[in-house]
Amino acid sequence: MDSRIWQHPIIDFGERKGREIYFNFNGKPIKAYEGETIAAALYASGVRVFGRSIRFQRPRGWFCAIGKCSSCLMKVDGIPNVRTCITLVKDGMNVEYQDPRPNLPEKTEFECEHVKVETDIAVIGGGPAGLSAILSLNELGVDSLIIDENPWLGGQLIKQTHKFFGSKASYAGIRGIKIAEILLGELRKENVKSLENSSVIACYREGKGFKITAVKGHSTLYEIDAKGLLVATGAMENMLAFPNNDLPGVCGAGGVQTLMNVYGVKPGENALMVGAGNVGLIVAYQLAQAGVNVKMIVEAAPKIGGYLVHAAKVRRMGIPILTRHSIKAAIGKDHVEGAVITKLDENWNPIEGTEFEVEVDLICLAVGLTPSTEILMQIGCEHAYVPELGGHVAIHDKFLKTTLDNVYLAGDVSGIEEASTAMMEGKIAAATAAIDMGVNVEKAENLRKKSLHELELLRSSPFSKRVITGKEKVYSLMEEISCG
Amino acid sequence: MGRLHEGVISVEDLKDILPPKERLEKGPVAIIECIESIPCDPCSLVCKQGAIIKPSISTPPRVDYDKCIGCGACVPICPGLAIFMVDYTYSEDKGLVYLPYEFTPLPEKGEEVIALNREGKEVGMAEVVKVITYPDKTSVVCIAVDKDLVMEVRFFRRKENGEKG
Ligand SMILES: Cc1cc2nc3c(=O)[nH]c(=O)nc-3n(C[C@H](O)[C@H](O)[C@H](O)COP(=O)(O)OP(=O)(O)OC[C@H]3O[C@@H](n4cnc5c(N)ncnc54)[C@H](O)[C@@H]3O)c2cc1C
Ligand code: SF4
Ligand code: SF4
Ligand code: FES
Hints:
The complex is a heterodimer of chains A (484) and B (165). Chain A is α/β, with parallel strands linked by helices. Chain A folds into 3 domains: 13-96, 2Fe-2S iron-sulphur cluster binding domain, sarcosine oxidase, alpha subunit, N-terminal domain (Ubiquitin-like (UB roll)); 113-236 and 373-482, FAD/NAD(P)-binding domain; 250-369, FAD/NAD(P)-binding domain (3-Layer(bba) Sandwich). Helices cover 26% and strands 28% of the residues of chain A. In chain A, strand 11 (198-206) and strand 12 form a beta hairpin. In chain A, helix 5 (253-261) runs parallel beside helix 6. Chain B is mostly beta strands and 165 residues long. Chain B has 2 domains: 19-76, 2-Layer Sandwich (Alpha-Beta Plaits), CATH 3.30.70; 90-165. In chain B, strand 2 (52-53) and strand 3 form a beta hairpin. The longest helix of chain B is centred in the N-terminal third of the chain and has 5 residues, at 42-46. Residues 32, 34, 40-43, 61, 78-80, 82-83 of chain B line the site of one iron/sulfur cluster. One iron/sulfur cluster (SF4) is lined by residues 30, 46-47, 49, 51-52, 63, 68-74, 85 of chain B.
């Protein structure tokens, strides 16, 4: 079986794929292309079960595809707990299922390089927020470094094949994948320092500055000394509680988007989308573009949550959207074979007798995101639970300063929003950092003013009301804290 | 009750913004089915005639039908794929619908396809009159349908192997 996509309306995968290589999976050779992750190559060749649960040995598949959920862990070249969804496959690599509770290898035979790096501002996360931040820092003459754990910089942009809304300043009308290319092009041109495929695993305060530990696979350990931090780690997709939600084939909608649009692998034949917000609507459309039959979109609320134009686009293709409906259970033994759908009453409770089954091999969950705020928590920034922003967020002001000196944040980690707003926040946070350091203050102030204005425009639609409410909550908490 | 809550737009929802009959009879004209306040403006920037009015980035666009010359430039630009163009002057009994299309393979000129309405329901047959491709990969497909379907048809599907119309 080979479920790679060769014909696609937007992306030329033939041009994108690297050299054909082979790796071993549980001793059997499997074909892959350079540039694919282990998980993508396995999925393309028909592997659905990626591991087993600890107690009941239930089969588990991948979920997020961007290194955030740990459901794809395998033993790679003797080392357990490798996130196969963000580890690039190599010729001759040995990949195998791991014991659900693996031990570390007794003898470490691999060589690990220890590299020390110094910088003024370390930007953690290379999505639209982090990229805009580092480009602005660079423009303002602040010595900086960007670190990202995925094989490619660009965050969620690199899977967004649709054209963006927004203003000219936020690249409206251009596809997300192109925006990523534009930002990365500037990054290369400016020779910005970047560490790719490197996860920040810890971050501590040291004196007035910070010490960051990052690892690149098992080959390099980075010890980074920074005077300031700009955290732009994005968000993680939410799970939904229903029986069998751990079956392989129940995936995050964004994860599915990564598999098909970044790695060119068809995620299934027949899909169910849960959630009619923008993510659900857009990914449903993109599944159709990849040749997947989207049977329906179910939405628990009485009305679609995403933009009408996105909904209209899937409706006219014949994809039904069932409001006040939700998934009751996934069906299947080792992999999703179907789903039970139920109607909901006004109080969001299932109405008995309304259940029906759909035959699908893929269930995509598009039920919201939660800010990835672990690093900010570890370092001691004060947090608050703000439902309008997607969960716990570090308390911050409108200049994107946290409760700790020299720690800034931008993008989805500061509240779930959009790439367009993430880019503006990246610029604002970078300008604030420069102002605080006393570097190029006048220019930084101008940049900040301009970006704050752009951000205000982007948030001027009624769809932004919720975010604005959430942001106002955090700003006032910040004021309380700074007034003591 | 309308069905906007489940993503289906109807002519009724658009009645205040559709061109008057006299304008439709004059030739091709843009139909913008974007009625929500979303922060977006590429349409108003692309129209060289200044026919797309958008007082602020979050106000839904309106077309000044006296200024619109039916050039079609706005159809492939819209990130929401919400702009169409119609032409009632094509022939005695057929009108044209220009629609944005992002699927592969593209239909061929002269091909008979199945016309779909805003809900994806099959409402008749259509003939592909023109396929215009652009470097950014959103193509515009122009199909001819019966005149009474011009305001209903917003998509099409290609016939499957052996399928009859
Ligand atoms: C399907 C879908 C459609 C969307 N459509 C639109 C749209 O049309 N318009 C729009 O404006 N927005 C859209 N968005 C939203 C937009 O993609 C996000 O809001 C945006 O990507 C957030 O940017 P970010 O930089 O904060 O985070 P991300 O893009 O998520 O980037 C975060 C980066 O941080 C890295 N990272 C995280 N933790 C670590 C660590 N410990 N060490 C190192 N690196 C780390 C990750 O690898 C990642 O690359 C869409 C989102 C989805 C899922
Ligand atoms: S068809 Fe041409 S003139 Fe008419 S609104 Fe569109 S871009 Fe403007
Ligand atoms: S470009 Fe399209 S989605 Fe954007 S405002 Fe214009 S019509 Fe609406
Ligand atoms: S960490 Fe690999 S699928 Fe989530």
